[in-house]
Amino acid sequence: MAKLDWPQQGKAALLGKRHDRIDGVAKASGAARYAYDILEDNMVLARVLGCPHAHCRVKSIDVKPALKVPGVVAAEALKKPGDEIQWQGDLVAVVAGETEGAIAEGLAAIKVQYEVLDVFAQDDDLEAAQKAKRTRRAGQSTKLERDIPDEVEDEEAWEEQELQRLFKECDKVIEGQYGIPVITHMCLEPHGSTCLWQGDKLIAHLSTQNVSGTAGQFAGPLGIPATDVTIHCDYIGGGFGSKFAADTWGVTAASLAKKLGRPVKLMLDRDLELKNAGTRPSGFIKVKVGVDGNGVVKVWDSHHWGTNGIGGGVVSQGVIPYVFDPPNRRRRATGIRVNAAPARAWRAPNHPQGAVLSQCAYDDVARELGIDSYEVFQRNLQRVSNGKTEVYREQMEIAAKLMDWKAKWHPHGKGPRNGSVVTGLGMALHTWGGAAHNSTAELKIHPDGSVEISLGSQDLGTGTRTVIALVVAETLGLKPEQVKVNIGYSTYPPSGPSGGSTTVGGVSESSRRAATAALNQLLDKVAGKLGVPAARLEAKDGRIQDSQNPETCISWKDACSLLGMSPLVAKGEYRRGRTKTNLSSSQVAGVQMAEVAVDLETGIVRMKKFVAVQDMGLIINRKAAESQVQGGVIMGIAYALFEERILDPQTGAFLNAELSDYLLPRLGDVGEIVVHLYEPPSEYQRGVVGLGEPPVISPGAAISNAVCNATGVRVPTLPLTPKRVLDALAKAQG
Amino acid sequence: MSEPVRSRGGFSRREFLKGSGAAAAATAVVGAPLVAPAEEATGLIRGAEEVTLQVNGKAHRVRIEPRTTLLEVLRYQLGLTGAKPVSADGCCGGSTVLLEGKPISAATTLALDCVGKQITTVEGLGAQDNVVQAFVHQDAMQCGFCTPGFVVAVKAFLKKHPYATEEEVREGLNGNLCRCGTYVNVVRAALEVVKGGRNG
Ligand code: FES
User: Fold this and answer.
1) ipTM rounded to 2 decimals
2) Domain A35-118+191-267: CATH class, spelled out
């Protein structure tokens, strides 16, 4: 009888080892087809026209001139006179045509008149936002050791008094300001789809993180049943939280395709991608912390603000302060409405901002008191929000060794100078849930011994196919290449969207369950043949054998031939919160350390070394897991040192909405990156926990702290561009 | 077919206009799904002409306008979608192909300028190529959208610098962008090829 539980640590044939991706050659050789790459007979291309103004009303719109352009097949207004537009780049019209050139000419021919309206675009300026009446309270929460006395009527006033009293009791009170601006998702494959109709049925080749959950989003607006929609996505060129929906442009492509009777490919242009298809909210904070002489934070009082676009939301106050949980704290949040598209979930929503807005303040405690940052972080571990004090402690020790922290450490701003260059160290901690999502898998064992498994999941770059193949092969005692993995179609049994580090847990759950159920059916058949009770049989090395007497065995192929004519089918189902499980779990910690070099004359920050220590429960594919941590770190280096969305404060124009202006690190910018996957028995036993989000959380804070350690000066706002560094240095010198 | 469409964006009853006869006249042509099959069929394409492009060692007749990019032809007429449209200005390396052995951005190169020259795309390297294989061994990919461009860039770089050091690799491959953060393993893949790798 095959057991559902994972093999004991060290006993697995495949799990936890280093495996190449099963779709690696397809990706590297250009054979992998993304939504952008799908070619259908008689297909037309379509592109959209973006609004040039950040706030305006459409007075008139005339798409007819586009139709005079040779090669243009269709043009359609997506806004009507009177419509109000709230961000630059909002979609105004669509043109379909035979060539890119014809479409570009067609788009340019469309005549739109706008009435330009007032714009607000300064999410970092709280006063200006208040003056412009663009703010709204986004929550306040106070936690104090002392209970509010019963007789108190004005609770807020009492809390204020109590905070003042607590601050007076502290050995030192430190104030700081920190900020992290809006960034975009910048998926290299923009949002979009290739849509075609077969009779009344729609096939949408969609660039999506949500294969099983998007059909209805097409069906509703198109007025057809969801059963008539098939979503297909074999490969997706980046999502990072921005590709869960059909989106207006997806529905537009589908309806155009219907009207034209031709397949339509509609992908957003780069600038419209950046203006419409996803950003991460900004956060700016004023903090006051009260500490004892050891740097242990006793009181935290903060107010943060920022924007998630026109909706006026802000970074959740729940992540302030981040990971650390001081005994007394008050936190307030204010959202600002700016003329920009709504934000979308960005890898580890809220957490990277939480880390920067909180842990830069903790590092400033070290700077002010002249204590080693490591010591301050360690002493404050006594109180952490996820109860993982011991895990952090061990991870910090490992990270410090890999970084050679003790030997390299110097107090903030007191390191040796090499010409105009100084170096420094910084660290940060993070946490994430990463619980498995719902997933159903259907596994077939064919009488010829071949095996296939189907589930409506997707591969964002995690290596989902390989994870599934490894789990099934491990369970059935086969090689991963013997398992055919079918994902990417909404016609397969449903699996959750890939968001929040839920996929590897989810597909491992359903695959393991399906494979175990299938194997047990097979073992029942083999038991009779071998004359060994099924309970004693096991699948190993391509055979079914008596676990007590492995000589008694039958090859996998011969075992499967016992199935007769039809394949054996088994389902594996996992429902979060409902299915009892030892296979997956949630909640991880993680420690990261950065070493940087800062040129005091040019303000240029260079990454020297970065150490990431990460737990994730049980590791399925060690090679891909390491890649994922590296990727998170590099994305973190991106927002720490390079990228931000720049809106013109007067007009709200998105000034750097092209890849050449929107800076991202290149291969030569990332320095040495050391990844340590933390998997002691206590972690392995927890089963699988998602890994996608955690490593992207800490780099901003860790790198900012390293720059502060190098220079002795806090550069308050990310990214730490040469100008910001020089400005901070100049300000510090007075 | 012409039912008013309601979309999540809130617009409804959009005016829909169709090119007069254009859609009806265009017919499917295998291998040339986008460009109208012949000028007289649509009478639409500006200055379109037939030329021959040498791609991956084979001659292909394609129909292009003077403004047609090499990338558009590769993808939509020849079905070679390994080179990706990522940025219109070629600053990301996503559409890297080899022109006479030198890496260029197909997104910013006019197809007309490539007539009479040898074009090699990632598909021309093939699955067994040592750079492709090294990318797989070193897991130098995540979503994979930047990967074909990177593979071609590494191929060209190592042809010029077959004994490149790690430092040279870090300095010489900055024309390609990866959002997923695969740089560490791209460096390792390049060095694996330098060392002779498993398929070197
Ligand atoms: S692997 Fe996704 S952009 Fe490079």
Assistant:
1) 0.97
2) alpha beta
